[in-house]
Each structure stands twice: as structure tokens, then as C-alpha cells.
């Protein structure tokens, strides 16, 4: 699982007037990864991502080819960071990483906390409709990590799994359970909520799903 780029972004306007730091660019040399994320990165909307449970976002490099196949040559995906990711990595996916899995990246220790929930900002950034729907239907969403130990890392480092989390709960299963078109039943959602290393935001959204099963989150 190779991290080919570590990326950061600054707030900038998107079409429609929204301000976002979704457009990120690769950083050179060793980068400090702290409890609040990659040094130099900005997280504008703390409701949907941010410190501490969602400090670092990873989007699998393989998904870029899938997006191009579905939506054509998107200029925003010309290089790493185009999907708002801090870590552009290959050999890793939502179907294999479980909630609570821990990884060493350089000297930093990361813990998988939840899948990403795609939002309209992605489509404003890419200038293309239908991307969010395709991500939701496929479960190709990316993932978030909390940082357990501050450290340094750089492009070319590997994500080395050092400890397993909840083996029955891959990030893709967690995504479909809470955000999918056909979400999980109450017993399954309760099981997800009880996981020891799940993010507080995913717990909140799972509880909302229990209270309002048919409302879009």
C-alpha cells in the first residue's frame, strides 16, 4: 500500500460561491502529520470532516481511473489531490480496510475511523454532475483516519498495517449501512454504533438513521 503523494490545500472559491479546500496539491519532502492532520492543510467545513476523528483523508488512486472511465477526462483529476485527499495511495480500498485498523505511515500512527460521505462540493469542484451518485452506488468513497501518534511521512512511504480493528466492519460495509440507498436494519446499525474505534460523526449519522430511516442524511 504505497502512498505516492501527501497533499494539502488552502481555501479557494468554487462555482456558486462556495469556499473549499478540496483542491489539494502534493507536498515535497518530509511532512508532519499531527493529531489535526497534514501540516499546511485546511479543512473548511468541520461539520463533514476534520479533527480529530477525520484528520486525514485517503482516496485510492485506482478510483481515478474509474472516475475517468465514467465521466471522461476531468481536468481536476490531472494529478494527486484532485479528490480532496491528503493521501493518494494505491493498493488499498474500502472493501479491505476495517474500522479501527491501524497503520504506520512513516513515523505517524493512523487509525481508520469511517468512510467518506460524498457531498455536492465534489461535483462543484469537478464541474460534473452525477459523480456523487456514482460514488454512493459503488461505495468508492475514500476513507478517513484519526492520528494516534504524530510523526513525519513523505511520498513513497508505505501504509503498513500494524493492528486490526473490527474485522466484520469494512469501511464499504459501514458506508452502505449508514449512507447507502438501502441502509442497514436497526440491529446492524446498533452494532456499528457500539464499535470501539468508530468515529463520533459516523455514530451520530447512524443514530439519525435509526430515528429517521427514510430521510436523506
SSE inventory with pairings:
Blueprint: E1 2-8, E2 12-13, E3 19-20, E4 25-26, E5 31-34, E6 37-38, E7 56-60, H1 62-71, E8 87-90, E9 102-105, E10 108-115, H2 120-126, H3 131-138, E11 143-149, E12 151-153, E13 159-163, H4 171-179, H5 186-193, H6 200-211
Parallel strand pairs: 7-8
Antiparallel strand pairs: 1-4, 1-8, 2-3, 5-6, 5-12, 7-11, 9-10, 9-13, 10-11
Helix pairs in contact: 5-6
Structural summary, described in words:
Helices cover about 25% and strands about 25% of the residues. With about 220 residues, it is of the alpha+beta class. It has one domain (about 1-165): M1 Pyruvate Kinase, Domain 3 (Beta Barrel). Strands 4-1-8-7-11-10-9-13 form an eight-stranded mixed beta sheet. Strands 6-5-12 form a three-stranded antiparallel beta sheet, with no helix packed on it. A two-stranded antiparallel sheet has the order 2-3. A hairpin with a 2-residue loop joins strand 5 (about 30-35) and strand 6. Helix 5 runs antiparallel to helix 6 (about 200-210). The two termini are about 30 Å apart. InterPro entries: Benzoxazolinone_Detox_Enz (IPR052353), MoCF_Sase_C (IPR005302), Pyrv_Knase-like_insert_dom_sf (IPR011037).
Amino acid at each position: 500500500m504505497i502512498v505516492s503523494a501527501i497533499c494539502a490545500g488552502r481555501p479557494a472559491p468554487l462555482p456558486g460561491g462556495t469556499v473549499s479546500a478540496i483542491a489539494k496539491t502534493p507536498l515535497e519532502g518530509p511532512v508532519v502529520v499531527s493529531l489535526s492532520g497534514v501540516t499546511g492543510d485546511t479543512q473548511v467545513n468541520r461539520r463533514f470532516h476534520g479533527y480529530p476523528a477525520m484528520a486525514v483523508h485517503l482516496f485510492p488512486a485506482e478510483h481515478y481511473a474509474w472516475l475517468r472511465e465514467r465521466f471522461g477526462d476531468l481536468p481536476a483529476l490531472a494529478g494527486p489531490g484532485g479528490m480532496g485527499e491528503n493521501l493518494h495511495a494505491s493498493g488499498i480500498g474500502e472493501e479491505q480496510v476495517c474500522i479501527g485498523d491501524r497503520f504506520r505511515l512513516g513515523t505517524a500512527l493512523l487509525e481508520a475511523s469511517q468512510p467518506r460521505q460524498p457531498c455536492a462540493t465534489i461535483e462543484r469542484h469537478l464541474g460534473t454532475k452525477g459523480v456523487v451518485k456514482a460514488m454512493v452506488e459503488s461505495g468508492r468513497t475514500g476513507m478517513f483516519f484519526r492520528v494516534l501518534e504524530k510523526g513525519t511521512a513523505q511520498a513513497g512511504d508505505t501504509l503498513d498495517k500494524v493492528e486490526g480493528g473490527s474485522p466484520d466492519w469494512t469501511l464499504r460495509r459501514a458506508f452502505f449501512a449508514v449512507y447507502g440507498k438501502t441502509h442497514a436494519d436497526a440491529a446492524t446499525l446498533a452494532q456499528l454504533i457500539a464499535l470501539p474505534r468508530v468515529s463520533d460523526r459516523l455514530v451520530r449519522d447512524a443514530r439519525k438513521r435509526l430515528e429517521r430511516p427514510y430521510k436523506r442524511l
